[in-house]
User: Fold these one by one.
Assistant:
Number 1:
Amino acid sequence: METQAHSEQKPDIPTEIDEWLAYQKELDGWLPITSSRNAKWWYSAFHNVTAMVGAGVLSLPYAMSNLGWGPGVVIMILSWIITLYTLWQMVQMHEMIPGKRFDRYHELGQYAFGEKLGLYIVVPQQLICEVGVDIVYMVTGGKSLKQIRTLACKNCKPIKTTYFIMIFASVHFVLSHLPNFNSISGVSLAAAVMSLSYSTIAWAASAHKGVQADVDYSYAATKTSDTIFNFFTALGDVAFAYAGHNVVLEIQATIPSTPEKPSKGPMWRGVVVAYIAVAMCYFPVAFVGYYVFGNNVQDNILFSLEKPTWLIIAANAFVVIHVIGSYQIYAVPVFDMIEFVLVKKLHFKPTRYLRFISRTTYVAFTMFVAITFPFFGGLLGFFGGFAFSPTTYFLPCIMWLAVYKPKKFGWSWCANWICIVLGTLLMILSPIGGMRNIILQAKKYSFHS
């Protein structure tokens, strides 16, 4: 009887573990990265296009003029291959442990390097990239709006860039309150289409204009030292152009996954489509733009294409729409980090008011920095070299070696070490050129311009 009575006793429910799991599930259902997991493969395609093909594509002809034909073509194509390979690695590592998904870049870093070290390695670099890109896009959006007005109304009284940045920011004060990645899919799709549109305008209008009579493909700098530093700066421009890896795992987290149909299948399909679109944007703009204008090309190819005016206005409008989408793509992981810290670490309740205040504050912060430092893009060439190169070119390779431990001197081991060496060189050299640019142009910088 005693045995029977003992067997009929049930454990206390809910247990602490059950409560913790329920809380974790509730938190995952609220945070923007994990709240919606019903994305299709084509969502990953246009999210990745929006994240990668930024307005930096318009500076690629200028980068080519500092690299030269031989090195420029090699670096552009090699960067495309290396970053596609490291992107494949991240897609594969997202679910390398059965039943576990690494939904955020820093979670993968923590698994590869340890709980604390992984955070210290990944989070600062990821934040530099994401917050830095958002600030740059604030400036880019404001300047493109200003360019549209200047071209459309050439006799109008000039208006400070500050006001155009504020107009651009007003859009984000609204869009930033969309809860998650899937809710901004329409914005992201429009942005991806616009990136293809203005890239096509840039290279097609250049081709139509024809090779200039005084075209010169030699390095513009007269001193050897200037040529070398300009070369380093151009490496940073290329690294910035391929900096889409910081949001890859967060995008993959929105795709449903089962043991039979893991998310890496549809995610990789979307990545391949995205990289084909990247090639269609980057290579024609870089090579045709440089072929037509040579070393006289400006740092924004649209400025070299002065006519027809209506086409340049259209291209700038497309840039504005695209950077609206890109801003949101890079902002969502930052919102996720902020909201996680507020709820998990500081014990705020996950409410709409908390989300409204935190996201509005973030948009206001990026707007303020963009207004105060409208030359922030020049600074990012320096800081970006430290963050864009590792997170895109070689940090996934280090994680792959740490986790999978491939055979020494095997294909995988060699490929990863080649990427690590090249990425490290890029990380060291590009900030040197960026720092020199800051020193040379410091006199031209004006706050609140």
Number 2:
Amino acid sequence: MKGIQAYLTEWESTQKPSRLAIPDRQIQCLTWHKPMSSKRELNMDATFFHDTQQTGVGMILRDEQGEFITMRTVVKEGCATVDIGEALGFYEVLSWLKDMEI
């Protein structure tokens, strides 16, 4: 039960607007757009669980209508930097696409 409470608390904290001061960086809000006709789009993002010292990667594959095809999540031990986490995400995407023979 303690793990569920920690997960819920972490989820709730992500739902609150935050005011992060990131020096020398500009934060962009990106909007998803449908891929071109007869194409698929794969989106990936990395996340960091500092309390458990883990890095997570989420991937979703959509068709040209934006409809869900499949998804995958991966959690690795160790809390990486943002750059390393994103690089890990790209590696996992390429491995996943290779496994699916896409």
